[in-house]
Amino acid sequence: MDRTAQLISRASEHLIAYDPPPVPDPLHVAASRVLEDNWTGASTVPSRSLYPHQWSWDSAFIAIGLRHLSPLRAQTELETLLSAQWGDGRIPHIVFNPSVPLDAYFPSPDFWRSSTAGRAAGAPRTVQTSGIVQPPVHALAAWLVHCADPGLSRARGFLARLHPKLAAWHRYLLHRRDLGGAGLASVVHPWEQGMDNSPCWDAPLSRVTPAPARSFRRADLDHGAAEDRPTDLDYGRYVRLATDYRDAGYADGTSRFAVEDPAFNALLIASEHALARIAAELGATATARHARAERLTTTLVNRLWDPATQMFLCRDLHSRSLIPELGVSGLIPLLLPTLPREIATALIGTARGPHFGLGGTTRLPPSYDLLGEAFDPHRYWRGPAWFNTSWLIERGLRTQGEPEHADALRTALLSTAATSGFAEYVDPYTGEPCGAPDFSWTAALALDLLHVRPEDGVSSTATGTFDMSEKGGIRG
Q1: Which end of the chain is more exposed for a tag (fewer CB within 10 A), N or C?
Q2: pLDDT score, position 350
Q3: How many CB atoms lie within 10 A of CB 30?
Q4: What integer is the mean pLDDT of 290-294?
Q5: What are the beta bridge partners of residue 316?
């Protein structure tokens, strides 16, 4: 049996169901309270103060945690998000709550003008959204939510209703966003990749003339320390890119910023596999999607793997070259079970080496190269550790057959979530909290780690994510 088949076989043996202990763990209680406090009735805000609307990839991660508390609420989280999908298939990165004042967050609905500027792209008329996207974690989240309570999911027709929406989302990314022509999806704004001010974007952003400072007001500085947030120069460039995209009717292929990112595409590949499992659950064939996911993995290696740095790098489509910056995005392909063994081994070595210090100098993997000139342990995505990327790396280590390293990271994640007050992000060395407290995906992913059994070797989360077998069933 080859390595991939062994991983598949191991994953398919484990149960999805989780039986909570008679006396709830204090971390469980605290994380549950965060999600309850941030629940709006139909979705969960990332933070009551800093992010008062629904965010796309946040909701996917939140649903993964919510499935352990209420599978119904987890299903509702994803259904609410997908109800705002555009006609061209894109899932917008923000769905705005009309009861929130316009000045509570910038850019606000009156900036994006989705229902008018996005009309040609099929933006919904009854709800206001942004016009850009975020990483495609949604099919993966939908599959895991289904697995938490298959009976409820089937009774409600959860997957049957979401499947065509998720398929349209993937079609949009694989066709409209294949701006490099090689098969990978591209991002046209740093907010789309989710790691807004990563040093990986400094070079491509340098081509963008910032919007005048007087043309916008940053609401984020009302709730977050300026030294922890992107600079005014960064924000000016973000606003310029978003304005130009809006004024072009949200047509793809016109942006001065176009990048192929390893994390975005690794999550697309993982979600392609999940979408194949969803199709199989609904009685359709999954062969084509599994095959596409494997082809995309090969393309990811050919396009973005850099042997010199032993790392996946971003590709700037305007300069047609790899961006020589080591961001945590380059570690996320560890999620992929058909990653060649020699590349997985090299990537783990990079994660555990001096650039990221995993298992050594850092508590959690930093968002950027510890040895990089731009490293800053407190400024957003220029060095701090984030819980969603750490969770993805923990999953990836298990996928690559590294349970001891995964267990150590899991322990550090749970401890840091508790001691930081479920912070948005933390100093990678000390765990000092930064950003917003009581952050939803931190609480949700702590719940997920708490509810899986690391002694199983491959976690219950990985069963849904990484069982690539078309015949592999879900027991539970």
Answers
A1: N
A2: 98
A3: 18
A4: 96
A5: 259, 321
Helices (H), 184-329: 190-193, 202-205, 232-247, 262-281, 287-304
424 is annotated as an active-site residue: yes
* Choice among 272-281, 367-376, 380-389, 455-464 with the minimum mean pLDDT: 455-464
Q: Which of 196, 261, 294, 376 is catalytic?
A: 196
Render pLDDT for 78-117 as a digit per residue (tens, 0 to 9): 999 999 999 999 999 999 999 999 988 989 999 999 999 9
Active site residue 394: no
Distance CA 399, CA 406 (A): 9
Q: Which amino acid is at 421?
A: G
Express each pLDDT in 385-435 by its tens digit. Answer: 999 999 999 999 999 999 999 999 999 999 999 999 999 999 999 999 999
From 88, 294, 325, 424, the catalytic residue: 424
pLDDT tens digits for range 133-172 = 999 999 999 999 999 999 999 999 999 999 999 999 999 9
pTM of the shown model: 0.91
Nearest to 134 by CA among 180, 188, 87, 174: 188
CA proximity to 243, closest of 261, 256, 229: 256
